[in-house]
Amino acid sequence: MKFPGRRKLKHYFPVAQDKTSLPKSEVQPKADTYIVGLDETIVDVIAKTEGNFLERHGIRKGLSNLVDKDTATAIYDELVKENRISDHFAGGTIGNTLHNYSVLADDKSVLLGVMSESITLGSPEYHYICHTSSKVDMNHLQGVQGDIGRGITLITEDGERTFAIAPGEMDELTPEAIDEEIIANAAAFVTCAYPLRHAGKPIKAALMKCLEYTHKHNIPVILTLGTQHLVEEYREEIIQIIQDYVCVVAMNEEEAHALTGEQNPLLAANIALDWVDMLLLTAGPEGLYLCGHTEEANKRETSHPIKSGAIADFNQWEFSRPQRQKDCQNPIKVFSHIDPYMGGPEKIRNTNGAGDGALSALLHDIAANNYHRAEVPNSSKHNGSYLAYSSFAQICKYANRVSYEILSQNSPRLSKGLPEREDSLEESYWER
Questions:
Q1: Binding of ATP: at which residues (predicted)?
Q2: Which residues pair with 154 in a beta bridge?
Q3: Which of 4, 81, 342, 374 has the fewest CB atoms within 10 Å of its CB?
Q4: So what's the pLDDT on residue 351?
């Protein structure tokens, strides 16, 4: 487990002890620190087309088209034959988050979902595995006879993008494929709201089974909201799930508006904190907010400039560490905000995945807290029940920096961890 930021020697724990056995790639539930995520496994395919390609396949230009298996196969086979595919990207909001977490933490995570039992060289499934960190344990994926999801981006000669979405078997994950022990020993469970769309598919029942296990074993649940339209359509159900199971919600400003009815990000966060322990809210060029609760007696005042918005002096206690409301006798709300790192990249290559990158940083800090508590239980770091290792302000910095890295590249998945020189730009994580 890598810890983000520079730390004083007294906060380290033994890392040079003799290893009695070789490391294993598969997660060992009672020995490893890891997070678990459930996702619709999908591969994003980018290809250029010309002529009447779209018309021949019945694809409406400039729109998102849901296509059946045979149409998707015909499109894909023709693109391969004519060598028109420029990129394959392993996709899925949770798949991206788990990959980035494992890159940042250099540690294990577990992906729950489906995968084709027969994988051929060069197939979308092959690319999904190739573009996912080896630290992501895929041994708990459920095998299916057909394809996983394919999201094909077709770029016509005028530069316009058209989408052909083929769900394949990505929603066929069954409740029986969920291993209770894997969830019971996780540092956190992360999922998205997308499976809620599929009441008639097994994946929704599988998600609910996971949530039951997290509740039974007191595992923090992190939920990403997907899209504004999804939240608008399933708002009441999402709020009920949040209130019953969820510890942390991750969303952007549009999803926050759809969820709470409040357009101002701070006020939306204030409303959502009545339902959850913590939330991560990305607000585009405005930066990001990290909000949550801490015990009144444990609050720590910021030394950063005080900020006011819809809530006066809202960041006053941002040097506090996050706690779950049920672990506080007198919980108070804490708000932290950070502007885009260095004003944001000069050139944004791809906005896809920036929020997932920020979430992976938060998950890293939650898992680091879990790991440190297991390794050094008598540390002063654990004189209370904390959800994360660092303060709200420091997690903000880390999440912001990871988002910057994602925005600077052409993929929602990190190819490597943050540059080592970043340590010189950050304060010691536990100094704050």
A1: 282-287, 355, 400
A2: 47, 162
A3: 81
A4: 59
Structure tokens at 17: 């002890």
Question: Hey, what amino acid is at 12?
Answer: Y
Sequence spans of domains, the chain: 29-41+91-147+169-425
Q: Using DSSP, state whether 111 is helix, strand or coil.
A: strand
Q: % helix / strand / coil in the chain, to the nearest 5?
A: 35, 20, 45
Query: For 79-98, what is each residue's pLDDT tens digit?
Result: 999 999 988 889 899 999 99
Which DSSP state fits 39?
-
Does pLDDT of 431 surpass 80? no
Annotated binding site for ATP: 282-287, 355, 400
End-to-end CA distance of the chain: 21
Binding site residue list for GMP: 39-44, 92-96, 197
Q: What is the pLDDT of residue 383?
A: 86
Whole-model pTM: value is 0.89
Q: Is 22 helix (H, G, I), strand (E, B) or coil?
A: coil
pLDDT of residue 159: 86
Q: What per-residue confidence (pLDDT) applies to 352?
A: 65
> Which parts are annotated binding residues?
39-44, 92-96, 197, 282-287, 355, 400
pLDDT attached to residue 428:
40
Pairwise pLDDT comparison (164 vs 417), residue with the higher score: 164
* CATH entry, 29-41+91-147+169-425, from 3.40.50.150, 3.40.1190.20, 3.40.50.2300, 3.30.70.270: 3.40.1190.20
Alpha carbons 310 and 58: distance in angstroms, whole number: 49
Structure tokens at 146: 């057909």
How distant, in Å, are the alpha carbons of 29, 56, 143, 147 from that of 170? Answer: 25, 26, 10, 8
